[in-house]
TrEMBL record:
Ranges that cross the membrane: none
Family annotation (InterPro entries): DinB-like, DinB/YfiT-like
Pfam short name (any one): DinB_2
Domain DinB-like: 26-183
Source organism of the structure: Chitinophaga lutea
Descriptive protein name: DinB family protein
Coiled coil stretches, renumbered: none
Length: 205
């Protein structure tokens, strides 16, 4: 399994989340709300539905990550120089992570309790997503002081399976990148752009 310099990994993840916020503020927020609520095709998700889906994961994982970091700090687990990914955490991350050209390695159906509603409240979803990303940035900063390999987080599907905090951060942010690219594709359709090829470069803001 891959090993990472812990500080470098956390800084790269922090940069990834900052880029997602920049994309939100520069590419998504200025658009008419009607465009953000327009599905690109029947049965496909609109921009707001993509964000609503991500918010549902944040509502679970952000408190779990905070609790894990709280435990690490309370138990005095010092930050380690190296973080080694677990096989399951690395698998989940690679499954979610888009390829450089934006293509997905696999398609999957969202669990029933993480599917967005047909007509979400756009302003509420945008505000929640912004707040969650700001909280995620703060958690990544806190994680610099704790051993992210020793503290663990139960996955949303079953609390019987736990990932390290480091792998949970990696998986969660890869999942966000996946669906922000989906949101950008939906936005291109809604604004009349026939070219919906969106690479990871779009997430550079």
């Amino acid at each position: 399994m891959p090993a990472f310099n812990s500080k470098t990994l956390l800084q790269e993840l922090h940069n990834d989340v900052s880029s997602l916020l920049n994309v939100l503020n520069s590419r998504i927020m200025p658009q008419p709300r009607a465009a953000l609520l327009q599905p690109p095709a029947p049965g496909s998700w609109s921009v707001i539905q993509c964000l609503d889906h991500l918010n549902s994961y944040g509502l679970y994982y952000l408190p779990q990550l905070k609790a894990a970091l709280d435990r690490g700090e309370h138990r005095g687990f010092p930050a380690a120089a190296t973080f080694k990914s677990g096989w399951l955490g690395n698998y989940f991350t690679n499954l979610m992570q888009p390829k450089p050209d934006g293509a997905l390695k696999s398609k999957m159906q969202a669990p029933k309790d993480h599917r967005p509603t047909p007509q979400p409240d756009a302003e509420k979803v945008l505000a929640e997503f912004t707040a969650q990303q700001e909280q995620l940035l703060r958690l990544l900063e806190r994680a610099q002081r704790t051993n992210i390999g020793r503290v663990r987080v139960p996955i949303s599907l079953t609390k019987l399976i736990k990932l390290s905090a480091g792998d949970t951060f990696r998986f969660l942010i890869a999942h966000e990148q996946r669906h922000i690219l989906q949101a950008l594709r939906a936005l291109l359709v809604a604004t009349g752009n026939n070219n919906t090829a969106v690479s990871m470069q779009y997430l550079a803001g």
